[in-house]
Amino acid sequence: MASGTRVAVSQILRNKDDTGDEEDEPKKKSREDWRKAKELEEARKAGTAPAAVDETGKDINPHIPQYISSAPWYYGTAGPTLKHQRPQEDREAEFTKLDTYYNKGVTGYAATKYRKGACENCGAMTHKKKDCLERPRKIGAKFSNVGIAPDEFSQPNLNLSYDGKRDRWNGYNPEQHKAIIEEYQKVEDAKRELRAEKLEQDPTATEEDDLEGEDEDKYVDEVDMPGTKVDSKQRITVRNLRIREDTAKYLRNLDLNSAYYDPKTRSMRDNPNPNGDESEYAGENFVRFSGDTRSHAAAQLFAWDAHHRGLDVHLLAEPTKLQLLQKEYDAKKEQFKTQVKQSVLDKYGGEEHLKAPPKELLLAQSEVFLRYNRDGTLASDVEKQLAKSKYEEDVLINNHTSVWGSYWRDGQWGYKCCHSFIKVFNIY
């Protein structure tokens, strides 16, 4: 690092005018001086010579590049320094200290009489009528002197730093924690009184039994799902994982038209070999909707609904009680439906239409296509019926041979047959 000083031209001229001597001008360095400066710089980098010291007494790293360590000529330095690279005091912003407290909300003080200069709508002194956030009153507080709002706390002019803006406890009043302590203390006192009354009524009971049950309730985790007592947000499911030795679902039938396999959820709901021999896997729906699975799911839903309505019932703890309640509920529900249906039939009639045979038997036709062999067995599986849309399909109006929406150009829909973008509804 160069140890020479860089003096401004104005400073040289000023010194020349003051002294009137031309010998004060800085002389040009000779080749020998440049060589000594270079050797000193290499020695400082190698560590054999002491580092340069700035005006504050701190050592300057000799490995700093020269374009960083050398100060500009207009800075007016008298020796090696890095002050020009540090934050300037005149440009540094003064931030608010982290311990500066400020209130949140209103002060809690409300005047009983309107004060001059206050808001004409609510009566607060901290804002005007055009800035009032309350509902506009029919008769303002200026004329009614009723319901004067409390004054908002005028916050100090805070200039928070990066850490101050992200401080979670900035503006927190520690005295607020006293209210929480007092609330818990009242709960403990009430429990102590109840425990004393129980001991007076039942002398055989010991205090340890009460404390033991209290500790169990004290440290139990709060749950969100009623009926199962399991936190659904924290539960981790492993139902999609399989043992590595088992055959993967998508390898049971490699036909592209076989049961659909979802690789994301690793699920195959249908049977991959419906016409083949009985295999170990018949689809997830076979396991999910066979046996007592549906009844168990219905009982679980009934337990959840009953818990939401304030009935203390649990599927695993009290299955008999839940079954009786569900049976009674289903009987009353069916009886209520029957009464409503019968009352509607008695009032409007039409009971003969409910006794008609199914539509398939009346018309001797259905939309399901079946193919049979000579021996009466099915030649192929029943084709899956596509879900119909609630909108009208294949409706041709106004002599069009294609439907609306079969043609698109420049962001407009139209008819493919005539490339018309005008959609006219047939009102006849």
UniProtKB/TrEMBL annotation:
Assembly information from the UniProt record: Associated with the spliceosome.
Limits of the Pre-mRNA-splicing factor SLU7 domain: 160-406
Homology family: Belongs to the SLU7 family.
Single GO MF annotation: pre-mRNA 3'-splice site binding
Name of this chain's protein: Pre-mRNA-splicing factor SLU7
GO terms of biological process kind: mRNA splicing, via spliceosome
Keyword Nucleus among UniProt keywords: yes
Organism: Danaus chrysippus
